[in-house]
Amino acid sequence: MAQRERRQAPPYGGTFVPRTRVMDRDGIRRAIWRMAHEIIEANAETESLVLVGLQTGGVQVAEAIAEALRSITEEPVEVGTLDVAFYRDDIGLRPVLPEAVTDIPWNLDGRTVILCDDVLFTGRTIRAALNALGDYGRPRAVRLAVMVDRGHRELPIRPDHVGKNLPTRRDEVVDVSEDGVDLGEMVR
Amino acid sequence: MSGAPTAPARRRHLLDIADIGGRADLEEVLRLTDAFAEVGERPIPKVPALRGKTVAWLFYEDSTRTRLSFETAARRLSADTLNFSVSSSSVKKGESLLDTARTIEAMGVDAIVVRHRSAGAPHRIAGWVDASVVNAGDGWHEHPTQALLDTYTLHRHLGGLDGAHIAIIGDIKHSRVARSDIWAFTQMGAEVTLVAPPTLLPPDLTGWPVRVSHDLDAVLPTLDVAYLLRMQRERMTEALLPSLREYTARWGLTVRRAEHLKDGAVILHPGPMNRGVEVAPEVADLDRSLILDQVRNGVSVRMAVLFLLLGADPANLLDA
User: Fold this and answer.
1) Radius of gyration of chain B (CA)
2) What residue ranges do the domains of chain A occupy?
3) Which chain B residues are closer than 8 Å to A107 by Cβ?
4) Which of A49, A58, B27, B44 lies at a 20 to 30 A Cα distance from B122?
5) Which of residues 14-73 of B touch A (CB under 8 A)?
6) CATH code for the domain of B86
């Protein structure tokens, strides 16, 4: 789970207590491969693709999808990282601090960007990421790939590629790691 | 889930370098500065982090580089800036510091960056207004953002300050930079030696975590960092030195002296330089001189400071 989400769970972190395992290691692997195939199907020109993982939880998702894309197409795939802390709309409402630096060493003009994140929730992180991407160029298209879509959107944003649709309660917490996806609660 | 970071303590003002906290807090600021340094390298070096915030400059003492550095930092964060120009304003007409500070605050500013020739002026203002106050240099007292940018520059270049031997050379007595730097450098684990003629040292150094030397040539070969202070020509009227030439002969970093620095040792200077006085023109342009890095890092550090004071506000969360 992203450090940011951990820190912002009310008020400031606590301990994540998993209740249900909703996806195991193998399920994650299959979902990654399926999304990689979907991405290729939707984008005939794979050389214009660039994957951008959102710090911090989206980075491993981007790396995993890129690895799958490389095995399928046998071509190099570029992976960048993006920290959206400075673009969030809740600065001043919450302790917002960058977790890690952004690393997008290419101009994004004309590229197709696949934004990758672990959990899609309110959509506000993605809103911030779209604003941030605009400062790196004008992509031809931006798509969104997430491991888990847990619902509760507050903005008109929808994912293009989803590992798993997971209905949740608002107060639940979703934890994505390499080992699997857990649903649980934060306990102070 | 160990290692989850805790919320940063809300800091309202940056008046002394010690306001940052201890070593762990300094390291947190350095880490945050890395993120802002990355912003500066982008094609569009601007983020909306402080959109809608207003920062006012209240400079009672001439400063070009510090003000420009703060201004660049604020604009890269999308904050609005107001310049309260003291030389052409009501201060000339006799307005008091209290009235000036309250007037600026009444315009709805979120932070006031103050430079004043009297030590403690920013502290007084901080007691009068609700806005955040940043000390950009007060008299001989402190210049905290300079200490942060010096620490960041060294941390980035040397990989850490633990055990590094740093000499601060020159007019320590009148230097707010030295007072802030000594605290920051020693907190980060460096050893600090002050090198100056006796007349340019404070009369009493009891309790300062430093060693003192009057002999630059003896100290030079042991240094990792030579931090040169500006020889303030305006002080020459106080008869603290026989002449600037004598200062250069004994305490200036000349070409000949710079050859005695060990491999990897670096040179810092807070600017503006007096080339030919405290540093030889050729020496200031050596690869080991990090003087322009300091200027570049100054913008990133000041972004981090403004963001810490105006951006993160955990206090609001408790109401949410």
Assistant:
1) 20
2) 3-187
3) 43
4) B27
5) 32, 34-35, 38-39, 42-44, 46-50
6) 3.40.50.1370
- What is the rounded CA–CA span in Å between residue A99 and residue A17? 23
Classify each residue of B281-297 as buried b or exposed e, where b means 16 or more C-beta atoms within 10 Å of its C-beta.
eebbebeebbbebbbeb
B313: closest chain A residue by CA: A92
Same structural domain, B74 and B129: yes
Domain count, chain B: 2
Residue B234 lies in a domain: yes
**Chain B closest CA to A146's CA: distance in Å?**
23
Nearest CA in chain A to B309: A92
Interface test with B, best of A1, A7, A82, A97 (most B CBs within 10 A): A97
pLDDT tens for each residue of A81-116 = 999 988 988 776 666 677 777 888 888 999 999 999
* Amino acid, single-letter form, for residue B201: L
Report yes or no on B320 lying in a domain.
no
- pTM for this prediction: 0.86
Judging contacts by C-beta atoms under 8 Å, the chain A residues touching residue B7 are 7, 11-12, 95
| Whole-complex ipTM | 0.73
Instruction: Give the CATH architecture of domain A3-187.
Output: 3-Layer(aba) Sandwich (3.40)
Residues B153 and B90 in one domain: no
Q: Compare CB distances from A92 to B44, B77, B316 and report the shortest one's residue.
A: B316
Work out how many CB contacts closer than 8 A connect A with B: 85
Cα-only R_g, chain A: 16
CB A10 within 8 A of CB A66: no
Q: Looking at the structure, do residues B242 and B121 belong to the same domain, yes or no? A: no
Query: Is residue B21 a part of any domain in this protein?
Result: yes
The reply to whether B119 and B153 lie within a common domain is no
B134/B153 same-domain check: no
pLDDT in tens, B160-209: 999 999 999 999 999 999 999 999 999 999 999 999 999 999 999 999 99
Tell me which residue range forms the domain holding B308.
17-142+296-312
Per-residue burial over A23-38, b = 16 or more CB atoms within 10 Å of its CB, e = otherwise: beeeebeebbbebbeb
Q: How far apart are CA A63 and CA A57, in angstroms?
A: 11
